[in-house]
Structure formats: C-alpha cells, structure tokens
Amino acid sequence: MDLFIVITLALLAVMGIVVGVSNDAVNFLNSAFGSKAASKRIILTIAGCGVMVGVMTSSGMMDVARSGVFYPNMFSYQEIMILFLGMMLSNIILLDIYNSLGLPTSTTVSLVFGLLGSAMALALYNIWGGYTTADLGDFINSGNALAIVSGILISVVLAFFTGHLLMYISRFIFSFRYHKLFNRYGALWCGVTMAGIIYFTVFKGLKSTTLIPEVLKEFVNENTGLSLLILWAGSSLLLWVLQRCKVNILRVSILAGTFSLALAFAGNDLVNFIGVPYAGYDSYMYAHSEGADLSSMVALSNPTKANFWIMCAAGLVMVVTLFTSKKALRVIETERALSSQSESAPTNSDASPVSRGIVRGVRHMNDALAAITPKSLREFINHRFEQLPEEERGDVNYDLIRATVNLTAAAILISVGTQLKLPLSTTYVVFMVSMGSSLADRAWGRESAVYRITGVMTVITGWFVTALGGFIIALGVTLLLAYGGKVAIVCVTILCVFLIVKSNFSKKKKEKSTEASAVAKLGDTLKKSPEEALMTYTELVCSSMEKVTVIYDRTIVAVFKENRKVLRDMVREAEEFYQYTRQQKYEIMPLLRSLEDSEISTGHYYVQVVDYISETSKALLHIARPCYKHVDNNHTGLSKEQVYDLKRINDRVEDIFGDINTMLRTRSFENMEMVLNKRDKMFDLIDEVMQNQLRRLRDTGGSSSANMLFFNILTETKTMVLHSRNIMKSLEHFVDLS
To answer: What is the pLDDT of residues 689-731, one digit of tens each?
Structure first.
C-alpha cells in the first residue's frame, strides 16, 4: 500500500503541474503578450528558460510542504503518508468543484489550507481514538501557518499599491507619448528596473544556490545600497549602448522581466505542484532506510535538498505544458482583456453595491482634491496622463511602459516572498499588480471602474472561499482515509481519477467561449472594410437570433415537463448570452469611432441592433429564471389549459423566429409584411390567452405561483418578439443604406 500511495502521489504531481501551469503560470506571460514585446515563440522560449532555472534552485520552498503548517514529529510514517495523500486527493476534489461552479482558486491557498485540514484531521483521529494525550496545538504549527496566511493576504494588498505607485510615477515622467523623452532618459529608467530585477532575482531569489560565489553574496549583503547603485549604473550604461545601437530597450526589459517572473514563479509555486508528493517520496525513502524510526517522522523537520533530476523533470513538464496548452493561451487572452487600456474592459458581471459605493466615494474624494489643487498643476498632471487615440494605440492592450512596470513590480514581490519562504499566490500578485497599474494609467474610467472593482473583490473573496473549502474538504477526506483504511484509499483515489478524466476529457469541455470568440472576431473584422464588417455583423445577429429561438423553445418545453436539469442549463445559457450582448455594446464603440463621414448615416443602425439584441436577451432571461425557480421550488405545475395555450404561443414564436432567421441569413426582406402580420396575430393570441386565464382565475382559481409564472411568460414573450422584429427592421434599413 505504501508503494501504491507513492505512485499515486507521483501521478497527481504530474497532473498538478499540468493544471497549475495552464491556470497559473500564464500570469507571467500576460505583460509580454499584452504589449507584443516579441513574437510568441521568443516569449515562450525565454519564459521556459526562466522556469528551468527556477525549478533547479527552488529546494528551499519544499520545506513548506514538509513542516510548514504541522509538526511532523507528532505523526507516524503511516499517518504522514495518509496526510499527504489526503491533501492531494482533496485538492483534486476542490479544483473540480470550484471549476464546476466557476469560482476562482489559488494553488498556493489550497496547498496551505489543504495541509492544515489534513493535519488537523489526523490530530483529531489520534485524540478521539485515545492514541495520544497531546493537545491539538501540539500537532499544528499555528505560528508558522499564520505567518504564511498573513504573507499571502498582505501580498495581495501590497501588490496592488506597489503596481499603482510605480505606474503612476512612470506615467507621470514619460506620459503616453513617451518616445521622445525616453530616447534621452529611458536608459536611466530601464536601468532602475533592471537593477531591481537583477538584485531581487539573483541575489535574493537565487541566494540559496551555489551559482553565486560566497564572497560576492557577503559583499552584497553588507553593502546593499552600494550594490544597487552599481547595478543601476552598470545596467543603465549597457542599456544606453544598446539604445544607441537602435535596440528597443523596453522590449529588453520586458523579456528580462518575463524571465525573472518565470524564475520566481517556478521557485515559489513549484511547491504547490510537487511539494507534497516529493515529501511523500522522501518519507517513503526514509521509512525504507536502515534504522528508520517509523513512530515519528521528525526527519521531515530537517531542511531538504531536492533531487536535481526530479526538479529537472518537473521543469520539463512545465515547459512542455507552457508550449502546448491551449487552455493557457485562452487564460492569457482573458487576462489581457481584463487589464486592457480600452474602455471595453470587463463588463461580463453585474457590479456589486460595494463597488458602486467605492467608486462614488473615490469620485467625491477626487473632486475634493481637485478643488484644493492649483488649476495649472491639475492641467499639467492631466496632460501627462492624456491617452492616445485608438488609431495611434494600435492593437496592443497596453504599451511597453506599463508592461515593464507590471513585470518589475511582480518579479520583485515574488522574489522577496520566495526568499522569506512565504508561498505567495503568484496569480493574485500578478493580477493585483496589473489592476494597480491599470488604475494608475487611468484605464479605470467611469465606464468600467465598478466592474474592475467587482472583479478584484471576486478574486479576494475567492481566496477566502478557497481557503475554507480546501480546509473542510481536506479534513473530511483525510478522516475518511484514516478510518476507512485501504478500501477508502482505493475508492477515493478512483473517484479522483474519474474527476480528472471528466474535467479534462469530457465532451462538455468544448470551446466554452463561443460568444467571446465571436466578439473577438467582430473586433478584428470591424477594423477592416465596411463590407466585411457588414457580413460579420449580420452573421452575429443571425447567430444571436438562432440562439434565442433554441433557448426559448427548450425552456417552454422543459417547464411543461418540469425538467429541472434542462431549465438550470437554460438559465445558465441565457445568462451567458445576456452578458455577451452587454459586452457587444462596448465592442461596437471602436467601429463607430472609425466611421467615415459617408457612413455616419448607417452608424445609428449598429447601435439600434445591438440594443435590441440586448433587450431580447434580457426578456429571454426573465423567462428562463422564473421557470427554473418555479420548478426548483417544487411549486404546482402548470394546468392542462395553460400548457395548451403556451404550446400554441410557442408554435407561433418558433414560426416567426424561423422567418426572421431566414430573412437575416438571406438578407432578403421581401416577406417583412408577412412576418408583421404573424406578429400581430400572435399578439392577438396572447391577449386572447390572457383573457381566458382571467376567466379561469375567476371560476377555478388555481395555483398562485403557476398563474404568476404563466402571465410572466406571456408578457416577456411579447416583449421578446417585439424587439426581435425591431432587430430585423433596423438591419433591413442598414442593408439598404449599405
């Protein structure tokens, strides 16, 4: 069984690396990709080199998994193996649950609290079973655990303000039109960033390695200020020479920062992926060594020196995943859009009341500061932060200045955390630095501020939820393994293998972001000719109307049959579709700005169509949600008369939508009058059905909840069809004028 556990831990370690790199490691690529500092292959190659250097010098962080949150001397060999296995298995279950619910996760947080939950489970097992007289506090290293948790939490706040401060200073100096001033003083500024990256990466992040001579380490430690000054002077001189040779030193700084951040990531987060399995392997080797004491695993308290070849193997898996993971590239696209300088940044979730209050409070504070700031100074600052027009900005998410700041701030923070042996969450550090820098860059305009703040709050809330979930699941799974023995170990392992296969190979895992890719396709096409824009936009309208038809029909049929599962799926699809239509409103803005004078007459039809689609999707959502809530609450179903009436309505809607879709596809509106007649007849039918229902209410009453649902479906259906007809009418005018 011991060998089975070790093999299982090894397989889980490989899966952990693949999943971790796909979800977390791409964070250090966002700045390079977002600013297009180099080609994709060059960026990935440099990042891969950073990862390999990082994994070969990260043995110090392995102690966190071995003895960071518990005292190994309080556990026997059998117990410590169950502890490690329970933590890894619970982590698989946690990730599967959170991925299914769409909640944010952190491998660092899940590691710390998973180990804490597993250790507490075995401590309770020993105490409840009467196998020890020790207290719970004798098993848990509460002081170290609190320091680790505090380090993660503080890093979130520190990362945001560090990114904000560095970006504000940098933008104030260079502004968005930075090229002229940068040609003069850019080498000095990039020298500061390079000095910081080199110092914290080489002399802090790699301090525990033998790559740096001891004499040099001692000099740097005793003369930190002088060392930084020498690094700055040397870096500035080298960059100045490169700049005179027509080399873009901003790109050099970004690629150096990408290497540094990849190194810091591997050195810090590798413990999340293989730390626990490696500790299990060490325990297994110790238990089978001569003179081993299996009653106490005090040997795990000693600092470990990681096996070089195991670390290299882990690094290779990381690099291969980095180059081949399509999911990683999708995550990059998502985060690039989130921190984009464009005003079309995230509006895919409703703003929370807290975020609205924060924005109002900051606006009032800003107004107060503006009132006491001299007008000349205020105008000078505003001039430094005046953004470039869309056509000058190009197709990058943000410029090279912000990309350099993002990488510098994140690399320094993570390198410091690695040196202090605090397993910071790389995901949160990079995310918060990016949010802080985008705030300083005034990307947080009034159009998107509430959504960005809501996103930040969601991440922080997800941290707490991940911590609580990881602790509870690890506690439960480890107790099950402890009491269930070999049978429980095999069963839970099989369950986790099933979850891994289901999550990674299920047919449901198709391209989930069809609408998102459609929006991206629209954004690319709208930069081309008006004819191509018209074709793409018409295609999107057709796809939207067909989606409305399918969701509506399946919702009505499911409410007849009281099929809760289908209704739940329809609510999810309706919500995603509604968020997609809201995002379209922002995606259409670049097109409207680029219209020529001769095209202005058609511009408002774009706005009309987008607005009508959004209203149609809203009406559809107001049908799907009450239907699901009605069935989910086990209310009385619709009566036979109500089902009959809704079937007639559904047939009419399907007929009208079919005609509309045909006209949109063919761009032939000859049958417009026929569709209008069908619409009027359907409205007459809705009025008739409502009158019939009022008579039934007077005569027989019936279920109040079913009656309310019935009237709601009729009302929203009428609204939905009305807006659908408006879509067709606006698109007809647009096609005629085009």
So the answer is: 888 888 888 777 667 888 899 899 999 998 888 887 777 777 6
- CATH among 1.20.58.220, 2.40.30.10, 1.10.472.10, 1.20.58.1560 for 514-737: 1.20.58.220
Q: Are 268 and 61 in contact (CB under 8 A)?
A: yes
- CA pair distance 387, 437, nearest whole angstrom: 14
Tokens encoding 559: 């409410």
pLDDT in tens, 551-587: 999 999 999 888 889 999 999 999 888 888 877 766 6
35 phi/psi in degrees, rounded to 5: -95, -5
Say if residues 408 and 166 touch (Cβ distance below 8 Å). Answer: yes
| Cα atoms found within 13 Å of the Cα of residue 165, Cβ hemisphere only | 8
| Confidence category of residue 391, pLDDT binned at 50, 70, 90 | low
Q: How far is Cα of residue 403 from the mean position of the Cα atoms in its chain?
A: 19
Q: d(Cα 72, Cα 297) in Å, to the nearest integer?
A: 5
- What is the number of residues in the chain? 738
Tokens standing for 408? 């510098």
Name, in order, each residue with C-beta under 8 angstroms of 414's C-beta and a sequence gap of 6 or more.
261, 264, 265, 268, 424, 426, 429
Residue 427 backbone zone (phi > 0: left; psi -120 to 50: alpha; other: beta): alpha
Domain ranges of the chain: 2-501, 514-737
- Is the separation of the CB atoms in 323 and 44 below 8 Å? yes
CA 562 – CA 556 distance, rounded (Å): 10
Q: Are 479 and 125 in contact (CB under 8 A)?
A: yes
Number of alpha carbons in the 13 Å side-chain half-sphere of residue 57 = 26
Q: Cα torsion at 661, 665, 669, 672 (round to 10°)?
A: 0
Helix %, strand %, coil % of the chain (to 5):
80, 0, 20
- Give the Cα separation of 673 and 653 in Å (integer): 16
Determine the Cα–Cα distance for residues 427 and 106; give it in Å rounded to an integer.
7
Confidence (pLDDT) at 520: 44
**pLDDT tens column, 506-531:** 544 444 444 444 444 444 444 445 55
Distance CA 442, CA 388 (A): 12
Can you tell me the distance from the alpha carbon of 386 to that of 62, in angstroms, rounded to the nearest whole number?
Answer: 47
For the beta carbon of residue 367, count every other beta carbon within 10 angstroms: 9
Tell whether the model's pLDDT for residue 344 goes beyond 60.
no
What three-state secondary structure class fits 235? helix
465, 422, 456: which is closest to 105 by C-alpha? 465
Distances (CA, A) of 3 to 156, 284, 286, 601, 696: 40, 8, 13, 74, 72
Cβ-contact 30, 339 below 8 angstroms: yes
The SS3 call for residue 341 is coil
Q: Are 57 and 308 in contact (CB under 8 A)?
A: no
Give the confidence band of 27 by pLDDT, cuts at 50, 70, 90.
low
Confidence of residue 623 (pLDDT cuts 50, 70, 90): very high
Report pLDDT digits (tens) over 630-661. 888 888 888 888 889 889 988 888 888 888 77
